[in-house]
Design a protein that fits this description.
Number of helices: 11
Largest sheet: 6 strands, parallel
Structural class: alpha/beta
Radius of gyration: 23 Å
Distance between the termini: 19 Å
Length: about 375
């Protein structure tokens, strides 16, 4: 969604008219959840996706009608529809999509800037398509045409943004705030939470594709190494920060940035560096902590961590040898195995082949 908003802001600056189609509800197997969007410009250019390719052609047709003057509309596609096979949604799911034109007054510039800065922010649009708000950081930009409606919508959006959720919410008429006295409205809230952090300690060759692919998956990437020759910014174009510092010193100074969405990958292969930072990481709120090395290295590392005071409960959090068993070789395939494990841990996946599982492919 970040690249979709960037493109929307660019089209708005250039005066290009476009419609935005956004998933508001899903049932059954659906490749994208609420908030996923695609843009259709007046020249027919397409950016983004709402279904992974299943119904995009049908969405484009609706977007063209909206750009020709039709009102914003909610459309539903699913396998139960008579035209299910015609639009291509045959995977067992149903999606509901809001299609509306985004006008020149929408505060997309602020939205894109906040997203780029990593600030939590939400785009709020009434289902009837009248106006929009950008909410985040205690401030609101834009309007729904009524200060009472703006206040009610802001409260609703802040609740959704607080848990990183996107979808429909009802505001006004006491639904959110008894003092709002605003008419009840159904709102689409698209939340953009802060990017999860990927902290890579050890700037060896394996760190380069890990930083690049991690960035492509939406992480804010920091690479840290005590050796200046390795911690060179030009070696890591995908990283947001490349730091020359002892890993444990950097971690202590920035531990307030670590939360449950943070992934810590220790690739140093040097006990002077990896044991101190692993001890800190295993006691932190980081949701994933992994270390590279052989099984022999792992057993030696466990002994050193125990001597350093790391508890058995903390050691149980350590994923070492790091990554999933993909049978891969080399830095790039190793990076894929590490990030696959991070995704599985973060999303609660089994890491099993889908052919060995039953039930929906896409989890609720």
């Amino acid at each position: 969604m970040r690249h979709v908003i960037d493109q929307a802001a660019a089209w708005q600056r250039s005066g290009t008219r476009f419609a935005m189609a956004t998933v508001v509800r899903t049932w059954g197997s659906s490749p994208h959840g609420p908030g996923a969007s695609m843009l259709v410009s007046e020249e027919g250019r397409i950016v983004g996706s709402v279904s992974g390719g299943c119904v995009e052609a049908a969405v484009c047709a609706v977007a063209e009608e909206v750009l020709a003057g039709a009102a914003p509309t909610l459309e539903r596609w699913g396998v139960g529809d008579e035209d299910a096979f015609a639009v291509g949604l045959t995977c067992g799911g149903t999606i509901e999509v809001l299609v509306r034109e985004v006008g020149a007054g929408a505060p997309l510039g602020r939205l894109a800037a906040d997203i780029a800065a990593g600030a939590p922010v939400a785009l709020v649009t009434p289902v009837d398509g009248s106006g929009c708000l950008v909410v985040g950081g205690g401030t609101t930009t834009g309007s729904l045409g009524d200060p009472r409606a703006d206040r009610a919508a802001t409260l609703a959006a802040e609740g959704m943004l607080g848990c990183g959720a996107s979808g429909l919410v009802t505001s006004g008429n006491g639904a959110i705030d008894d003092t709002s006295c605003a008419p009840e409205r159904e709102l689409l809230v698209q939340s953009f939470a802060s990017r999860p952090r990927l902290l890579i300690f050890g700037a060896a060759e394996f760190a380069r594709p890990l930083a690049d692919i991690g960035a492509a998956l939406g992480h804010r990437v920091t690479v840290c190494d005590a050796r200046p020759a390795f911690a060179a910014a030009e070696r890591f174009p995908g990283a947001d920060d490349v730091v020359t510092e002892r890993p444990d010193r950097w971690f202590r100074a920035h531990e307030d940035l670590v939360d449950t969405s943070t992934a810590v990958c220790v690739l140093t292969h040097d006990t002077r560096f990896d044991v101190p930072v692993l001890g800190l990481a295993l006691r932190s709120r980081a949701g994933y902590v992994g270390a590279m090395g052989s099984r022999r290295t792992h057993e030696d590392r466990l002994g050193r961590l125990r001597k350093a005071g790391t508890t058995e409960a903390e050691l149980a959090r350590l994923r070492s040898p790091i990554g999933l068993d993909l049978g891969g070789r080399g830095p790039e395939e190793t990076a894929v195995s590490i990030l696959a494990e991070i995704v599985a841990v973060r999303r609660g996946g089994t890491a099993l082949p889908l052919t060995l599982r039953t039930g929906p492919v896409h989890r609720a």
